[in-house]
């Protein structure tokens, strides 16, 4: 058993500094005093000065308290009993059910060695045309949803969780409002997926330091399920709240601030979590979809800016829709050539015509004379937005492709859509082809 240390030299915010030796980074400790005990974690080492973040806050902690280090990082129990359960940011049950008794696993470990990974090549079907057709989600991919406050990003995450073909769904909530947490829980219950879901939820009313633990809890548990051969989907919201928690701790530690006050290791801290997404060679996979809110819709903000360098694309959520321009899945080419022979052709043609529709709208709004081609582009844009882009549209991939063909055929002639004749002959709506022949 490690000995106690009682030379606490500083208490600032949720951080306690104690004089100790032989201590490791991320090691857990227990603070014991007159008002009970608290769990803490080592976040900074400088000579013999050890700084710990106290999960429950430092209220009631005094310089006379004793600190005992546990010689291990934070752990979480792992077993199938986790399924259907809801926990807080420290791994304690939030659903008024008993603590899970199972083998403990460490959290916050390194990313998987690249030689143990396989090349991602399996599509994750979501039932959302703007994802499935235009920016396909791929197993083991890490993708953020860039959004602003007020957009339905949590609803989008919940819908992906409900409809994606995953064996295990893990939700990590950071700084969630209580009603958002209840929406997730209700959606999973009503959708029949709560039994294969695990929720680690940190609400805005919980200690801010617990937001830092949530991604590690989710990813550690998800990795173990993936090693068992399961397809795991990890949903994280909101990574900006995670970064803000890092910023708050850095300020308390009086670290030299970087861009907009965030710590200099923001990129590293985020990459450690995102890079845990993996497709194991000979086992399962873990896919990460994370929401990143952009203050002021500013994509140059440090959180989305750093995220863009780490992840494999992004979805932009604006005006209640996934924006086709700017959204990108860098791995979509790994899968969309294997779905149906017209997938890539439809993807390219529909977006090109929608871009032309935007130009025609600008002409109309500026009072320029409109041509018959502009009128058809405007008609196409309205139908495309209503029947494909709207997030309420919920159809399988092949049905979505057929719907795109119907919209194109209603607005244009075959020679106008820029698709090879062989593909047009195979997929142009038969009833329209018959009418043209007559």
Q: Treating each run of at least 4 consecutive H or I residues as one helix, how many helices?
A: 12
Second-tier CATH architecture of the largest domain: 3-Layer(aba) Sandwich
Query: How much beta, percentage-wise?
Result: 15-25%
**Shape summary:** elongated
- Number of domains as seen in the coordinates: 3
**Number of distinct beta strands:** 20
Low-confidence segments: none
CATH domain class name of the largest domain: Alpha Beta
Q: pLDDT average, as an integer?
A: 91
CATH fold-level assignment of the largest domain: Rossmann fold
Task: State the oligomer.
Answer: single chain
Radius of gyration from the alpha-carbon trace, in angstroms: 25 Å
Main β sheet profile = 9 strands, mixed
